[in-house]
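Q: Study each token:
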Amino acid sequence: MSGLGTRGERDVLSAQAVTVRFEGLTALDSVSLDVRPGDLLGLIGPNGAGKTTLVNVLTGFQPPAAGEVEIGGRRAAGWPSHRFARAGVARTFQNGRLFKDCSVSENLEVAELGAGLSARAAAARAADVLAWMDLSASADVRADALPYGEERRIGIARALATAPKWLLLDEPAAGLNDAECDHLMRTVSRIPERFGCGVLLIEHNMRVVMTVCRRIQVIDFGKTIAEGTPAQIQADAGVIRAYLGRATAA
């Protein structure tokens, strides 16, 4: 499908039957997924299931071997990552990737300038996002001086500062303690209403996923094995086997 698409399609970030192979290994096998405004969609699966590979495809860091990616009804497979960002797709990374010698505000402003904001608008939006996330006190702190939990939160703030239509969070709870996870859950659950974007949450912490997400998609060995509400996913025998092993599940 090409062109601008229908009104509904303009609101959707989608992967359609996406396949990715690495030297003969199939990392994703015909996986489809949609993220719409207001979504809180969880993407879960065992280690090596293909979750981050799918995020890389949806943000232009990995071209698919087959299938299509659409942003607002426009074919986007093969676009460079900066074009995905300009189209409204923002992401976080598992390792943070902050500019360590820059302040927190500067980290947000650099991302905003890359998304096309003016310097004045970037400074104003950075301040607004930091205030919303209760991070104003850290605005002038160098990124290399941040404690780990706050560094993870700054990664989310930086992505939100680009005014995304779709926000992809790649394991934001990794390494956080219980109190930090509670704060993360409160923040993520409020993002769609506050910023009007759809959220795709990739996470191993099941307490976070089951609390925050309204629907969940499960992949294993590069294939979708279940989709549904948190309650449906927790009761799905195939999901239990994927996480615990057939003998343990039985």
User: Anything to note?
Assistant: The domain at 9-97+163-249 is CATH 3.40.50.300 (Rossmann fold). The beta strands are 13-22, 25-35, 40-44, 66-71, 74-75, 89-91, 166-170, 198-202, 215-220, 223-228. The chain has one domain: 9-97+163-249.
